[in-house]
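Researcher: I'm comparing several assemblies side by side, and this is the next one on my list. It has 884 residues spread over two chains. Same procedure as the others: predict the full complex and return the structure.
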Amino acid sequence: MLFSPASPLPASPALTRRGVLAGGLTLGLALALGGKRARAAGPVGTFDPPATPNAFVTIAPDDSVTVTVKHLDMGQGVSTGLPTFVADELDADWSQMRFAFAPADAATYANLAWGPVQGTGGSTATANSWMQLRKAGAAMRAMLVSAAAAEWGVPESEITVARGRIRHEASGREAGFGAFAQAAAALPVPAEPRLKAPAQWIYIGKEGVPRLDTPSKTDGSATYSLDVRVPGMLTAVVAHPPLFGARVARVDAEAARAVPGVEDVVEIPTGVAVVARDTWSAMKGRDALVVEWDDARAETRSTQALVADARAVFERPGTTAFASGDAAGALAGAARTIEVEHVFPYLAHATMEPMNGTIARREDGGYEAWGAFQIQTIDQASVAAIMGTTPDRVRLNTLFAGGSFGRRAVPGADWISEAAHILKATGERAPIHLVWTREDDMRAGHYRPLVVHRVRAGLDDAGRIVGWEHRIAGKSIMKGTPFEALIMADGVDATSVEGARAMPYAIGARRLTVHDTRELVPVLWWRSVGHTHTAHAIETLIDELAHAAGRDPVDYRLSLLEEGSREAAVLRRAAEEAGWSGPGEGNGRGRGVSVHTSFGTAVAMVADVVVEGEEIRVPRIVCAVECGVPVNPDVIRAQVEGSVGFALATVLREQVTLADGAVVETNLDTYRPTRFSEMPRVEVHILPSENPPSGIGEPAVPTLAPAIANAVFAATGERLRSLPLDLSAGRGA
Amino acid sequence: MIRFQLNGREAALDVDPDMPLLWALRDHAGLTGTKFGCGIAQCGACTVHLDGAPIRSCVTPLSAVDGASITTIEGVEGPVAEAVKAAWRDLDVVQCGYCQSGQIMSAIGLLTQTSAPTDADVVAAMDGNLCRCGTYQRIRAAIADASTRLG
């Protein structure tokens, strides 16, 4: 089901093919040039980039231009950014632009950065759509011009298009796009339409292009996954095991079944589901449920033991992820060495909208699901496998996500698979709307891994880094998932070492090893993935080395960076905008700096901190970014501001801990995201660039923690390496 | 049967009086603009107005609104609501947007009480509304903008 953000999801989402075609979509399909939208998903493995770009652009008789957005919008603004590419090349007026989320169809809507998989992540949405959607817009423009020229009997070369109007100056003819949509649809799609030169852009890189999703998100009309209402649907909540790896031993559902509104209680692979007529009844039914769990094969360690076991794997040789020169020899000959350890806790994504999903059996025997799907291809295949059908018989409707930060991109498709299991266990008699409470969401795992770093660096007499030995212990995110083959090479999970493998600094000899831990806690990518810990380990150690060498942290970094590099450029800019004159004199106030490249984007930050007692406050962050062509400067600023707000709590306090295997932090009173009163003033400076656009959803996260930690050192003289920064622990040691 | 005013109209819901107002609105009144975030009044995504003042609907039993007037994001109107929504639009405050119904209802509550809030007033009114996307800087600016619009 495609829907326009301007109109809420139809109250009765069609469960039949006929219903879908009758529901206002008919017109759109008829005019979708190329007609590729209606195509069924092809099998994974037969990837072929779409030849007809207009699977992405639909022009309606009312002149509206709807861009089919193949990515999940979890807040990062793709539902504005992708239409920007089309609008610019099409010379549309911004007020004409609409968007609709694409159906699951990997053959047409694959992420071109990933291969034959439709999905969103790794800050690739803008980068992989850049040429695809510019070409789609340019092709559509060329076809409209051809159609107009034919209709008016004038040469194409005499036709101009501007702000959504097609004109022929000499004859005074003028029309909107809608007038020629039908005729244009019959024309061949130009394979290589001419694209604008950067100087001709009217929206790309310009200020004043408002987000298309703002209106519906300010009046309550935006439809999120949890807002889906399917006729006859029942709401399910699930009693999950209290420990990772535990299973149901015995269920007494009598009291639960007696709760008014409860329709069924069924056992599924992930627990026991209570199915009821509304959410509250399902929750009350679950409260009344008695389940005994079999913990025999469950994870029962506490956080302290997990950290100790992670340290213990350093005793065994790791897998080499990078080696250059003789690092051990260089360190042995160094004038001075510094060895540090950092411990990084599990982190929950804690999206504002907890995980949920809805699924129904269609009259034609296929299935239809609604949710904030982030890897549609995997979600579709997972549902198909559970229901015993083929992926093409599973229709997915992607809706707005109330945040993700990586959580909705699950290789095991956990939440929609759970909904499918409930549908199956209840005999497919009613659509199932699965709701996770906050406690369910917090306890379900899929955390940023618990990681321990040990780094030893050696300086020569001149303060140059002659050797660097870096060891990382933690659980691989990718091992045992469908992405293993794609991302792992030579036994190394690239997401464990990203940010530490390629370093921008001049370092004599260097060795990086990974050491896998074994645990049952599910781990997952979490906004900026491996960079969340590698950047912190590196950028705090560089700061220590600068201090040891008696150098200013900015000057020291610049001396190690290649002249003319993007890192040097953003660092200089951030220092200049912040009025950098050194880290400060202490007395509870300090400044820190960091620089890091991730997802193709270079970021530098200067943090000001104030330390009072054990409390760390961060009044100001100055940030410089180079993310290629800045497609929408205001969205870039918003992503950087938001990244600071998102990441700040992980610096100050956020962590998921286990007590005898059970998750301790189960709601937002104990796992506490950043609040309004804590938000720093964030100043964002975007460097001009002609590089293709790179990521912006994640790259401003990794630099925050080290900038603040380095500022805390400047303020207090205390080196807090592990996260969250805990001054009470530092002083007690 | 619980009877109350809902967005200016008479409403009557025949459901468990212990049901939180949030779930009554979402599952029985068809108003999904009010969001579920935590269920324990920690995040503010469920904020609605009871007789004009912001409350957390996730911890307010339906029985407590009997005879009262409830306003949700779908029904809130008037000069303050218009100023706040306009400021939110002009500054493109939203990212994922899930918390924004609650943010806007809290901001309208604040500016209804005082159209020229101090910084302490703003913090007191907004610190209970979490935004995981970290849009706080723009929320602050939008409240200031709305305050200016209200003169």
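Model: For your comparison table: Helices of chain B lie at 21-28, 79-90, 100-113, 119-126, 136-149.
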